[in-house]
Amino acid sequence: MTDFRTDAIHAGYTATGHDDAVSVPIYASAAFDLENSLRGRDLAAGVTQGFEYSRVANPTVDALERRIAALEGGIGAVAVSSGMAAVSYALMCAGERGGRIIAPTNLYGASVDALGDFLPQFGIEADFVDDINDLDAIEAAIRPETRAIFAETVANPSTEITDIEPIAELAHRHGIALIVDNTVPTPYLLRPIEFGADIVVHSTTKGITGHGNAIGGVIVDAGRFDWANGRFPQFTQEQQVIADPDGTLRSFADKYGAEAFIRRIRIKYLRTFGAVQSAFNAYLQLIGLETLPQRVSQQVASARTIAEHLTHTPHVIKVNYSGLGSTPQYDLVAKYFPRGVGQILSFLVDGDVSNVRRILDGTKLFAYVPNIGDARSLIVDPVNITHREVPERYKLADGVTPNLIRLSIGLEDVNDLIADLDQAIAAAY
Ligand SMILES: *Cc1c(COP(=O)(O)O)cnc(C)c1O
């Protein structure tokens, strides 16, 4: 077993078979030669491995998928065109045909909107709980139609930590899958599959790409969940698209076993809805991944220093950062995050929205953008930007108020960042 730092550079790709290119080439080709009629038939039937058409698979994207699967400890991955495509496909694949999903309200804004407002239009309903670590509340919400529990491993912008292990145990006792969004910590800080998660999704736009230059997402399958346990009719129904070469109809569970979920994502969701990752974006993400450990290590160290500084900065009345060492979730930090919790933190200031506006407009190094996980440091007011679509009652319960400011710490010198925040806050009052 090689170390994460080694896998971030080598996993999922060898130069052999790629004209000896040591850096993963960009395969800008819509289609791939099927070579002859027999091979073409077998490729289409999935009994021979190879590339046919880049909506379903592409060699550059394939290297990214293999590398992320290795870094997360999964059996396979599908890269898609955005984090929201990854979230939507994973939730729909689990919930299709009348399923229900249990989730907390402190999710990324578009995920709350998907679960609370949009997926119900497709017959998939959500049961929200106030606190995802309240096992009794989760158990009380489980119904015959419940298919999955969905949570972010570290919530944004509160940095609250999900206690994955007992939630996975509870889910599995009921035959329900645990799907987690691991965007904020990245696999360098947390590998949720090791704690029992079944499906891991990412917005690779953030820490994984790390330079704010590509939108992307990925779905990773742990390969352990039994999709034929009776709760998931979509996995046991026979389907033409995966028929054997002799015409025999097959179901995903029967044909692919442990790989049923990730195969269904590729063969049904990517093939039909088509939110495909481009080869060029996959290339940018592969380059970003090479330095993920080094970038995140430095960002975590800076985020901690800045969080501590803000706890004694005038006009700052509260700092949300689970990595501070003094939070109620300190035991969860020790259990899940020995390398730190991440580069996101948020803080509450006194005064009114005019003070908040002056801080946002007053920073010179922090860019005012909705993104996170960039090499540049970023600042945003979640209530107006990233969590705008979250219903008011959830925002209040999750501390997303007009005086909350979120930071994503980049790779600049930490003293320069502190000086920038200090001058912006001092000038805002
Ligand atoms: C940004 C983000 C998403 C959405 O990702 P996109 O790549 O912007 O579509 C989903 N979940 C979390 C936690 C995010 O931060």
TrEMBL record:
Its cofactor is pyridoxal 5'-phosphate. It holds the Pfam family Cys_Met_Meta_PP. GO terms for cellular component: cytoplasm. GO terms for molecular function: cysteine synthase activity; homocysteine desulfhydrase activity; methionine gamma-lyase activity; O-acetylhomoserine aminocarboxypropyltransferase activity; pyridoxal phosphate binding. InterPro entries: Cys/Met-Metab_PyrdxlP-dep_enz, OAc-hSer/O-AcSer_sulfhydrylase, PyrdxlP-dep_Trfase, PyrdxlP-dep_Trfase_major, PyrdxlP-dep_Trfase_small. The modification N6-(pyridoxal phosphate)lysine is found at residue 206. It catalyses: L-methionine + H2O = methanethiol + 2-oxobutanoate + NH4(+); L-homocysteine + H2O = 2-oxobutanoate + hydrogen sulfide + NH4(+) + H(+). It is an enzyme of class 4 (lyase). The keyword Cytoplasm does not apply. Gene3D superfamilies: Aspartate Aminotransferase, domain 1, Type I PLP-dependent aspartate aminotransferase-like (Major domain). Its EC number is 4.4.1.2. One of its GO terms (biological process) is L-homocysteine biosynthetic process. Keywords: Pyridoxal phosphate, Transferase. Belongs to the trans-sulfuration enzymes family. This is homocysteine desulfhydrase.
